[in-house]
Amino acid sequence: MILSNNTIALFKNILEDQNIKTEKASYIYSQKVLERKIKEEGLTLSRGRKLFITGILKIDDYNALKKENLVNIKNLKKEAHDIVFKLKIIDKKNQIEDKALVEIFQRFSEFDTSDKKHLVNLIPPTDVDFKTGALSLDLNQAFSKILSKKSNRKTNKKHEFH
Amino acid sequence: MNFIDKNVSVEKAVIILSKNGIQVNEKEVEIILELLYLVSKSYDKPREKKIPYR
User: Fold this and answer.
1) Which of A74, A88, A125, B33 is most buried as measured by Cβ atoms within 10 A of its Cβ?
2) Which residues pair with A148 in a beta bridge?
3) Domain count, chain A
4) Could you tell me how many CB contacts below 8 A there are between chain A and chain B?
5) Cβ proximity of A21 and B47 under 8 Å
6) Is A159 domain-assigned?
């Protein structure tokens, strides 16, 4: 049993939603924090420069501030660069081929027990053959609109859950 | 398992499915979203079995 091609768009939206909620969201948050810190460092240097010009800050102090500031900005930019790289990896990972996307039950064996139960409640099996493990599925009207039989699969395995 | 914070709403799902030629009512789309959110969890896990670093 696979997802029909015209449901892929909806499933992509859901996968994107799931990713946004997890790692992508945390990286985007870190990115914003880093941007703010870089801006703050720039403001600190700007204030130091004004104090130096007005004679309040000595040249040695100003140079020390400038040096420290440059190191901080360099480190923050490196962190920001790493996050951009990680976000690119996530986006790449999200570009799953449609062919892989339709196999929504392929990883049923890796589901948590509670998720397996949930799935079995949603799509109850009927006519289970305990010898071969083959079974039929009771598809309701909603699921029959989004799921289709996988035609090019070996015999007796099309509805099989392990 | 609840998906309280689902961002893909019933209305949005109906529109997406409709654009792809699937006509569903609200009750149908609710159960469709329940199924798709459930199976989407397995897509968050690593997709390939790799040899762990030792």
Assistant:
1) B33
2) A2
3) 2
4) 93
5) no
6) no
**pLDDT, tens digit, for every residue of A68-112?**
999 999 999 999 999 999 888 877 766 666 667 788 888 888 888
- Contact at 8 Å (CB) between B33 and B49? no
- How many angstroms separate the CA of residue B40 from the nearest CA in chain A? 6
Which residues does residue A126 pair with via DSSP β-bridges, in sequence order? A136
Q: Give the separation between CA A158 and CA A99, rounded to whole angstroms.
A: 16
A7 and A78 share one domain? yes
d(CA A91, CA B36): 20
Residues belonging to chain B with any Cβ–Cβ distance to chain A shorter than 8 Å = 1, 5-8, 12-13, 16-17, 19-22, 24, 27-29, 31-45, 47
Residue B47 token pair: 């997709």
Contacts of A142 in chain B (CB under 8 A): 24, 27-29, 31-32
How far does Cα A76 stand from its chain's mean position? 24
Q: Are A5 and A98 in contact (CB under 8 A)?
A: yes
Nearest-CA residue of chain B relative to A17?
B7
Using one digit for the tens of pLDDT, what is the confidence trace for A26-39? Answer: 899 999 999 999 99
Q: Is A141 found in the same domain as A69?
A: no
pTM > 0.80: yes or no: no
Q: How far is CA A56 from the centre of its chain?
A: 50
Rounded distance, CA A99 to CA A79, Å?
36
